[in-house]
Write a structure and sequence with these properties.
Its cofactor is Mg(2+). The protein has a five-stranded mixed beta sheet, with helices on both faces. It has a five-stranded antiparallel beta sheet with strand order 12-15-13-14-16, covered by helices on one side. It has about 375 residues and is α+β, with helices and mostly antiparallel strands. The chain starts with 6 loop residues before the first strand and ends with a strand. The chain has helices at about 15-25, 70-75, 80-90, 100-115, 140-155, 165-170, 190-195, 205-215, 220-225, 230-235, 235-245, 280-300, 335-345; strands at about 5-10, 30-35, 45, 50, 55, 65, 95, 120, 125-130, 160-165, 180-185, 265-275, 305-315, 320-330, 355-365, 380-385. The chain folds into four domains: about 5-15 and about 100-190, Alpha-Beta Plaits (2-Layer Sandwich); about 15-95, MutS, DNA mismatch repair protein, domain I (3-Layer(aba) Sandwich); about 195-245, DNA polymerase, domain 1 (Orthogonal Bundle), CATH 1.10.150.20; about 265-385, Dna Ligase, domain 1 (2-Layer Sandwich), CATH 3.30.1490.100. Helix 10 crosses helix 11 (about 235-245). The chain is about 35% helix and about 25% strand. 2'-deoxycytidine-5'-triphosphate (DCP) binds near residues 15, 65, 78 and 79.
């Protein structure tokens, strides 16, 4: 018999704001709001101290990205207009968002969890599901160890719940925020889940919640007790079935793990062995095409990489690789071609070639925004082979 599943959901507390507090510990305990543009970055004064922007001074149409719990106590939450937030918390400190920093801490906390429980499903920058089923420790100890690992690695707190499935784990991690630790079982559904508003279930959006409320179904418990035929009549067979299942805490979705690729590469074996000089043009065309395909793969998967490598297999089947590491990660075909070309100049080309490959490693998540530093990638700072 399979052991009962143990699924954790972990969500970082006030994530972006908490990362900012690592950088500006003097703001701990204060209402802090993250949002807005570069203009609100703290200014260094001549005496070395920092002047932070006050929320009250904000003018514009930006929205709050997130806020510290102190700001939330004043009614300021994610997605609220900044001007409205300023009326509620005029003395709050306003900081611009620094997505590179948040991505960095996101990778760090996930890596810390992976040292204890490697079966992880990424759900975004600050949340993951973790399958604890096959880990040899009780749920409470595991949850404590995971929280401690996250705190040791990042200095940040998170909230975690362990439950028989993703649905309950996700709801559970919010029950005791911040710095929460919640254990939920099917036996707890009636007492802990049924009193919650229907919208707390991931998958019941504002529109569905409204339609449910119009039928007098405000809480999860209301849905659980509702007549199934009535649900079917209003929501159709499949959504009604799903509603009844989730209201009873039933969810069979697996934790979907996929490990981050270490590198992305393309290689091709030639129709006939090619010679570097005599087939120069053909070889060059294939080489460029490989670089273009790697660049497409990178951009489709959302990565850039710093280590560019080539692989050659000679007519006698011997294989060589060369790579070099650039000062900054790249993802465009021309830059990959230049770097790979530099690698190619470091191998012997007397023998005919049967295979050519191009690889980009040292991957990092692409930001989607051009590098703000305007860095021009130049060849190479550091060469390894
Ligand atoms: N975020 C955003 N826009 C939103 C909500 C959130 O950009 N409307 C960002 C900022 C958050 C991060 O995503 O820091 C994670 O979202 P959460 O909903 O988990 O919110 P927090 O981590 O900030 O707070 P909590 O402690 O409630 O999880
Ligand atoms: Mg969070």
């Amino acid at each position: 018999m399979k052991p009962p599943r143990r699924i954790a959901h972990l969500d970082m507390d006030a994530f972006y704001a908490s990362v900012e507090l690592l950088r500006y510990p003097q703001l701990r305990g204060r209402a802090v709001v993250v949002g807005g543009r570069r203009a609100q970055a703290p200014q260094r004064l001549p005496d070395g101290s920092l002047r932070f922007a006050r929320l009250a001074d904000y003018v514009g149409r930006g929205v709050v990205t997130t806020s510290t719990y102190e700001a939330r106590a004043l009614g300021v939450f994610s997605a609220m207009g900044m001007m409205k937030a300023a009326r509620l918390a005029p003395d709050a400190v306003l900081l611009p968002a620094d997505f590179d920093a948040y991505r960095h801490y996101s990778r760090m906390f996930k890596a810390a969890v992976a040292t204890i429980a490697p079966s992880i499903e990424n759900r975004g920058i600050d949340e993951i599901y973790i399958d604890l089923t096959n880990i040899d420790d009780d749920s409470l100890s595991l949850a404590r160890r995971i929280k401690a690992a996250v705190r040791d690695a990042t200095g940040l707190s998170c909230s975690i719940a362990v439950a028989p499935n993703k649905l309950l784990a996700k709801i559970g991690s919010e029950l005791d925020k911040p710095d929460g630790l919640t254990l939920l079982d099917l036996a707890d559904v009636a007492t802990r889940i049924w009193p919650l508003p229907a919208g707390r279930i991931n998958g019941i959006g504002p529109k569905s919640a409204e339609r449910l409320a119009a039928l007098g179904l405000a809480t999860v418990g209301d849905i659980a007790r509702a007549d199934p035929a009535m649900l079917r009549e209003h929501f159709g067979h499949s959504y009604a079935t799903w509603l009844a299942d989730v209201a009873h805490g039933r969810d069979e979705r697996p934790v979907v793990t996929h490990s981050e690729p270490k590198s992305i590469s393309r290689e091709t074996t030639f129709e006939r062995d090619l010679h570097a000089q005599r087939d120069r043009e053909e070889l060059s065309g294939v080489f460029t095409a490989l670089c273009e395909r790697v660049a497409e793969d990178l951009s489709r998967k959302g990565y850039r990489g710093r280590t560019i490598g080539i692989k050659l297999r000679y007519a006698d089947f011997s294989t060589v690789t060369r790579d070099l590491t650039l000062p900054a990660a790249i993802d465009d075909a021309a830059a990959i071609r230049r770097a790979a070309g530099a690698c190619l100049r470091r191998v012997g080309l007397e023998q005919r070639l049967r295979l050519l490959g191009v690889r980009v490693g040292g991957l990092e998540a692409a930001t989607g925004v051009p590098d703000a530093s305007g860095y021009q990638v130049e060849l190479p700072l550091q060469v390894t082979s």
